[in-house]
Amino acid sequence: MEHDPSPASVMASTTAETPPLLRGSIPASPWFGAREAWRRLRGQSHRAVPQFDTQPALPWQAVATRRRSLLVLLMALTCIATSLVLLRVLDWRGMPILSLLQLLLFVPLVAWVSAGFWSAMMGFVVMLKGDRHVLSARQAEGVEIPTDARSAIIMPICNEHVPTVIAGLQATCESLSATGQAGHFDVFMLSDTRDPARQAEERAAWQALRAELDAKGGPRVFYRVRKRPGKRKAGNVADFCRRWGRLYRYMVVLDADSVMSGECLTGLVKLMEANPRAGIIQTVPRPCGQTTLHARAQQFASRVTGSLFTAGMQFWQLGDSHYWGHNAIIRIEAFMRHCGLARLEGEGRLSGDVLSHDFIEAALIRRAGYHVWVVPDLPGSFEQVPCNLLDELQRDRRWCLGNMLNARLIVEPGLTPAHRAMLLTGVLAYASAPLWLCYLLVGTLAWGFVDYGELTSTPTALQGLWWFTAVLLMLPRVLGVAAICLRGEQVQFGGTLRLVASALIEAVLSVLQAPIRMFAHTSFVIAAITGVKLEWKSKSPPREADALSWRDAARGFFGDSLLAAQWGVLAQLSHPAAALWLAPVYAPLVGAIPLAVTTGDLRLGRSIRARQLLLVPEEARTPRVLTAAWRYANMEKASLPLAA
């Protein structure tokens, strides 16, 4: 595959909706699958396995192997220690089968929690001490963008809120123009919208944006409506690559709510030029721009605890990192050669098109010998979060099915151990919910067969287990706040007192919402496995803030609340002490409807912001690109200061 040495064909017309075609292909080989892997293991497979990564190893790969071995050791020690304590606490005389079930469920759950805990611990160290092995934005310093290194900025859209999409895209393009490097980029709006009225709105907005950018010397903006949409976003991106991918060396993928600064975009290209074996470089998008209490808590958690987990994740992964599907740059030639996605054979829900394509594309491009990096210190990458809990769960339903589908590809030959683990953690992000629920339900039943005197005969062990579990879950939040204070960044969050108060608010809200997420994720996993179709009475998560109505909340959570109330009654009948211990789980579920409405209320969110709680740095000092995007979208951010 060769790149067009000249952009002349792209720049041939100033009025065409799309540039001239330069067709290429994205071959998609059939997946091997679990059955073929089993045949290979038994020596019964005759299917040839191609050679994958034949590149010599780099120093970071040996470092990553040692670090991952340390992680496995720490997780194993944590599981062994807590399991031994649980063995002392469980009553094996009343109903031993229930005790055995509790133990079997407990081990994978504590392994899952401990992986996050140790990642947070390493993230804390990295945030204070740094890590010389990670990819850093500093590597872009002094790098020039060659004239033939052309990049496409692509934004796949489908039935989106057009004013919000255009506002972010316009701000991004204007920021890119301000760098003086806009000539290296073309911009594509890739629409899968089927509604003619919405298409007309998109086209009119594109024409206005293109005229304004042409007048200012900005990047070229093209617009394409796919006539035969298929395979969702992955198919949209693949269609772009087949038509115009050979015109460009790189592509930057945006979501409909993405905003990126010009410095971030040019920095990504420079990092690619400085690292020719990099296939994907992923930025860390900073959530911001929403008003409700739910959204503000998610934004705050992402900046405080999320930054810690990202640093820790990068500590273990290095060049075997994630790709999150947007706000990232991709080497197009490598992507077209190695990231074709075949259908998953079979029938039922766990077959068909690959949905969570980003994890698979990262695994495939790494298998081919290219590296996948997350660059956490490159600023200027932003996104939005869902406005309320119902919208969040609507999004999670799609992600859950996609991640469950990916479980079928864990055994594909040639994948790195890190990416196999990544696919597994994607499954556990949702499959852990039914495990937790089963553990709690088994515990509820076990109370009916337990002599409470026997349970209280080992109070030290029981209390120690509870406290240790609480530390595993809550210490990352404490470390996140501590890291901010030790780095002297607390003023960006409203000062030390407001930072601590905000962390407490977010922690309480997280504890209240955790059982609701557990119930919802459990239903998503069951639906994915059984093929049962769930109907959620909510639209796709909107890009613009809107209050959650009582009717929508009731439609979304009434069934869960009813089941939780029955669970509480069962616990009370089983043993009054069980009802007390389990109240933090079923009580928030019973109150899920008012909780969702309250946290999705715009007025409460404005009140919290007015008190400078749950602040993120972009509100304390707003980057110009965000100020422009919010102004164009008529969002209520006029009172925020403008960054220098």
Strand content: 5-15%
Name of the CATH superfamily of the domain at 141-420 and 475-644: Spore Coat Polysaccharide Biosynthesis Protein SpsA, Chain A
Distance between the termini: 44 Å
Total number of beta strands? 10
CATH architecture of the domain at 141-420 and 475-644: Alpha-Beta Complex
Major β-sheet profile: 7 strands, mixed
How helical, in percent, are the residues?
55-70%
Query: What structural category do the secondary elements indicate?
Result: alpha/beta
Net shape: globular
* Low-confidence sequence ranges: 1-5, 7-14, 455-459, 536-540, 638-644
Oligomer: single chain
Q: How many helices does DSSP assign?
A: 21
* CATH topology type of the domain at 141-420 and 475-644: Spore Coat Polysaccharide Biosynthesis Protein SpsA, Chain A
Pfam families: Glyco_trans_2_3
Subcellular location: Cell inner membrane
InterPro entries: Glyco_trans_2-like, Glycosyltr_2/OpgH_subfam, Nucleotide-diphossugar_trans
Pathway: Glycan metabolism; osmoregulated periplasmic glucan (OPG) biosynthesis
How would the blueprint of this fold be written?
Blueprint: H1 33-41, H2 59-89, H3 96-129, E1 151-157, H4 162-178, E2 185-191, H5 196-216, E3 220-225, H6 232-244, E4 250-253, E5 259-260, H7 262-274, E6 278-283, E7 286-287, H8 293-317, E8 328-331, H9 332-338, H10 357-367, E9 371-375, E10 381-383, H11 389-406, H12 417-447, H13 452-456, H14 459-486, H15 496-530, H16 550-574, H17 576-590, H18 592-599, H19 602-610, H20 617-620, H21 624-632
Parallel strand pairs: 1-2, 1-4, 2-3, 6-9, 7-10
Antiparallel strand pairs: 4-8, 5-10, 6-8
Helix pairs in contact: 2-3, 2-14, 3-8, 3-12, 3-14, 4-5, 4-7, 4-21, 8-14, 8-15, 8-19, 10-12, 11-12, 11-15, 12-15, 12-17, 14-15, 15-17, 16-17, 16-18
